[in-house]
Design goal:
With 268 residues, the protein is of the alpha/beta class. The protein is built from 8 helices and 6 strands; from the N terminus they run H-E-H-E-H-E-H-E-H-H-E-H-E-H. The protein has a 4-stranded parallel beta sheet with strand order 2-1-3-4. Strands 5-6 form a two-stranded antiparallel ribbon.
Length: 268
Amino acid sequence: MMHGFIPPQRYFPYLTWQEIEQMPDKQNVVIIQPVGAIEQHGPHLPLAVDSAISVGVLGRALEQLEPEVAAYALPCLYYGKSNEHWGFPGTITLNATTLLAVIKEMAVSIYRSGFRKLVLMNSHGGQPQVMEIAARDIHQEHPDFAVFPLFTWRVPHIAGELLTDKEREYGIHAGDAETSIMLSLLPEQVKMERAVTEYPQVPQDSLLDMEGKLPFSWLTQELSHSGVMGDATTATKEKGDRILQSVADGWVKVIRDVSRFQQPNVNC
């Protein structure tokens, strides 16, 4: 099944061109582009984690979304900018220029079809900046096109309540949260007997950190032997079920908000 986690009636490629041409109120239909990655996630998780989370969360959200809110999922963009992980076999990466070009050309195709609302639903922490640059450039070129560069995990959710303080701060890759949600989404692909705990060695008592307001550049192989940054051993399916539902609930609200959104314009 091509649609995977996505409800088939919400899967954009299943539409015909006539259905798209005749779609009512097309300017308020929400088109969602899941963006993931194919990159190492430690010895216990598959390469597809970020992509699986994008599509899994979006599918759960679209199942819950009211039928009257028109929203469709595009096929996941599986390849992303993952060069921070290329010291580990299996990682496939595009450079920033290529990823930016792919997103912009996809968006122009959506625009030509008459749609005016596009969500870039990114689940990989190495490329939010590319999403933001793409969205700004696309909107500058097409001012009536609203583009939303959103990170899957930034909606309101309860994951932080289920993690330790250390995990919340340093468990940024293949740790408790990602492993738990994968136990919910694709349990047969998780090898918990190989799960490890490894936290990155980062400067202490410094204003500089990995991903905060004053970050330094880093490669995963400089910070982790296993590719894990966090504690994967504490992950459970029960935790993952709760995290998945919570993040999906947040995305239902986001899709509703995008559907109602009107671009601000002081000149109108």
